[in-house]
UniProtKB/TrEMBL annotation:
It comes from Picea sitchensis (Sitka spruce). The keyword Transmembrane applies. This is Uncharacterized protein. InterPro entries: Mit_KHE1. Keywords: Membrane, Transmembrane, Transmembrane helix. One of its GO terms (cellular component) is mitochondrial inner membrane. The chain crosses the membrane at residues 148-167. GO terms for biological process: potassium ion transport; proton transmembrane transport.
Length: 280
């Protein structure tokens, strides 16, 4: 069982910020102890069952392996000498990353293991409106990221041709990264749809497999089946209301106010500011 907390509040007029309650930066270490090898990947794939769930697990292992290797390459570019081509490639990549939509980062933060969400929002907001907006983000995110994931995958064979150039294959690297990012965001949007759904029949699909098997067994023995328990909890917060009410009605939240909120709820201020400054 994993519970994720969402912090929701207006940042400018009708524009809201949606972020998770914790933010973890990627590890910056380059130690070999946690560096998976192709041999270890092959061993993990070999012992995974071949059923449908096993195929899904194998795909996750492969994408995690590729993602880790890409992250290592990216960290190597970060340490390139100033003024070198590799350093310029890194600067270009950072410029592109800064333009990733905040909704994508929010959806990517929703793990497939999440079985319950707590939604914290200012006291003055309508709870039904808060949940409706979460469903809207999930629906639009599923459509958007599915479309662009297929687009990124379709471009991979063409960008692979740049390998003949004696320079870092930036187009291939970027397409691999974006395909994985869109896949992660798509998984998050589909999970979010289940978590905030009104349909109690969908809630039974949220629990972890071993928990659901146990609950099914209990139900067959005459026990209670809790697989359909409501997975979302709405938490109106007066403290958050007091922080945002003074500025949200008159204009955009200032950087200082956003900083206070982020320190209080352990958020990433750069992502909150993206919600405020994103004009699309």
């Amino acid at each position: 069982m994993k519970t994720t907390r969402f912090i929701v509040f207006p940042v400018e007029g009708r524009r809201w910020s949606f972020t998770t309650g914790t933010f973890t930066r990627p590890p910056t270490g380059t130690g070999q102890a946690n560096d998976p090898t192709f041999k270890e990947l092959w061993r993990s794939i070999s012992i995974t069952p071949s059923a449908d769930q096993g195929l899904s697990r194998k795909a996750e292992l492969i994408t995690d392996f590729v993602s880790h290797k890409m992250q290592q390459k990216w960290l190597a570019l970060e340490k390139a000498p100033v003024g070198s081509i590799r350093q310029r490639v890194y600067s270009l990549g950072q410029w592109l990353l800064d333009r990733v939509k905040p909704s994508e980062m929010f959806l990517k933060s929703i793990s497939k293991d999440t079985t319950k969400v707590e939604v914290v929002f200012p006291l003055s907001l309508n709870p039904r409106l808060v949940r409706r907006r979460l469903r809207c983000i999930a629906n639009s995110g599923a459509i958007y990221h599915r479309r662009y994931m297929y687009g990124s995958i379709a471009l991979l064979p063409f960008t692979a041709l740049f390998a003949v150039v004696p320079l870092p294959n930036v187009p291939l690297f970027w397409n691999l990264f974006r395909a994985h990012a869109h896949w992660r965001a798509l998984q998050g949007s589909e999970r979010l749809l289940l978590l905030v759904s009104d349909c109690s029949n969908s809630w039974s699909r949220i629990g972890a497999p071993h928990d659901m098997n146990r609950e099914t067994e209990n139900a067959s023995q005459g026990g209670s089946n809790t697989a359909g328990t409501c997975p979302w909890v709405l938490i109106p917060c007066r403290e958050l209301e007091n922080i945002v009410v003074s500025e949200a009605k008159t204009g955009a939240l200032s950087n200082s106010t956003i900083s206070i909120i982020c320190k209080t709820y352990n958020l990433d201020s750069s992502q909150v500011m993206k919600w405020r400054d994103d004009k699309l």
